[in-house]
Amino acid sequence: MKAIKKLCMLALLLMVPVLAVASGAEGHLDKAPVDLKDKVSMQRGAKLFTFYCLSCHSASYMRYNRLKDIGMSEEQIKKDLLLPEGAKLGSTMPAAMDKEAAKQVYGVAPPDLSVITRSRSPDWIYTYLRSFHVDSKRPSGWNNVIFPNVGMPNVLAELQGEQELKVEKRDGHETKKLVLAKHGSMKPAEFDTAIADLTNFLVFVGEPAKLVRYNLGYIVLGFLSVLFVLIYALKKEIWKDIH
Ligand code: HEC
Fold it and tell me: Distance (Å, rounded) from C-alpha 89 to C-alpha 133?
């Protein structure tokens, strides 16, 4: 017993530095309001993704017809996501731009985004997409607070507008603040909701089976409730004569 306790303590102690590194490296992240039960939000996210991201990034683990899981009909998938003529619903989501060509232009090849919410985190994606700011020193004209010197330009600037980074020095402390210098077509709160939708969709893309598991959970709970009623009735029947 004592040995087990010691082992548990050792395991806990070993985890402490890992946790410390994980939280220290990321900086401040906003909490992504992920809700995998909100299919309409994921559908809006799918539209944003195909309009604004698929030009450079692929989602090679996701097939178009899998979007039926978030409540889209074949018609909607073809029409709302502007599927190119002749594209098959069973195909995965390729990037429009060739990887090598993109590397030439942006310095880094845009990575596949299939499992990005798992390799980073939903909070990281939600914060990253809202943390771009203008920076004339960068080749793209953009920089990002949580991904310094990123190769990706702010492709959502027409929606968000342009943020500037203000650095204030007070009592030797530096505080960085993003200020909206030029408005986009969306109000800040609208833009946050759009990014929440996009993050929600990317969480689904990262683990589509999660939705199936949710449904399975309800079926199991339903089965257990029926079983409970039957067993309770059986118990009453058995004890009837004894009481
Ligand atoms: C114009 C091309 C382009 C478009 C469009 C684009 N990106 Fe990117 N993106 C890039 C490039 C290039 C990188 C690599 C940046 C680097 O490593 O410096 C990148 C990196 C990223 C990363 C960081 C990946 C990592 O973990 O290193 C995420 C997340 C991301 N993009 C999400 C998106 C989303 C979501 C959209 C759609 C709203 C989008 N991108 C649209 C070019 C693009």
Answer: 37
Nearest CA to ligand 1 atom 34: 53
CA distances from 77 to 29, 36, 57, 89 (A): 32, 19, 19, 8
User: Is the C-beta atom of 156 inside 6 A of ligand 1?
Assistant: yes
* Residue 36: HSE in the Cβ half-sphere, 13 Å Cα cutoff: 16
Query: Which residue's alpha carbon is nearest to atom 33 within ligand 1?
Result: 53
C-alpha 220 chain-centroid distance: 28
Reading the block at residue 120, the tokens are: 């980073």
45 lines ligand 1 (CB under 6 A): no
Residue by residue, pLDDT tens for the chain (243 residues) are: 566 666 555 555 555 444 443 333 346 899 999 999 999 999 999 999 999 999 999 999 999 999 999 999 999 999 999 887 777 899 999 998 999 999 999 999 999 999 999 999 999 999 999 999 999 999 999 999 999 999 999 999 999 999 999 988 888 888 889 999 999 999 999 999 999 999 999 999 998 888 888 888 889 999 999 999 999 999 999 998 876
Residue with tokens 């990321």: 26
